[in-house]
Amino acid sequence: MPLLTKQYKFCSAHRYWNDTFSDEDNYKNFGKDIYLHGHNYMLDITLKGPINPKTGFIIDLQKLNIIVDDYVINIFDHKQIEKDIKWFHDKQPSTENMVVFIWEQLYSKIDKPAKLYSIKLQETPTISTKYFGPGENNE
Q1: pTM score, two decimals?
Q2: Which of 45, 57, 38 is nearest to 7 (CA)?
């Protein structure tokens, strides 16, 4: 079955901090990332499914763009993640947590028979996280 990956971009800011840590422990764990900073994120949404013989695509890309804009880009773009997005109020704004959030936002909204296969979020040239969703084979 073919896989289709569509890439999106957004800019967000965050800082890492744990209120149960001392200032010193926060710095030991997170370094300079305790200070507010931003990233230009690259988001890869990968879908799998049969090719529609009428369109030649797994999914209507225009509909996918609307879904991703509504449920991901408009939520993250130009926001301070841990302050502006309620889901992150008790979680670190790490790429690990972000891909789980994005999966939860998108999974049920993808038009069948296409299915969400993976989420990859690139934070910097050297840091990215890939997520294949919950399940016994993926945890």
Answers
A1: 0.92
A2: 45
What is the per-residue pLDDT across 25-77, written as a single tens digit (0 to 9) for each? 999 999 999 999 999 999 999 999 999 999 999 999 999 999 999 999 999 99
Between the alpha carbon of residue 84 and those of residues 47, 70, 72, the distances in Å are 28, 16, 13
Q: Phi/psi class of residue 136: alpha, beta or left (left: φ > 0; alpha: ψ in -120 to 50)?
A: alpha
Q: List % helix, strand, coil for the chain (3-state, nearest 5).
A: 35, 30, 35
DSSP helix/strand/coil, 72? helix
What is the distance between the alpha carbons of residues 116 and 104, in angstroms, rounded to a whole number?
11
Could you give the domains of the chain? 3-131 (3.30.479.10)
For residue 138, is pLDDT > 60?
no
DSSP code at position 85:
-
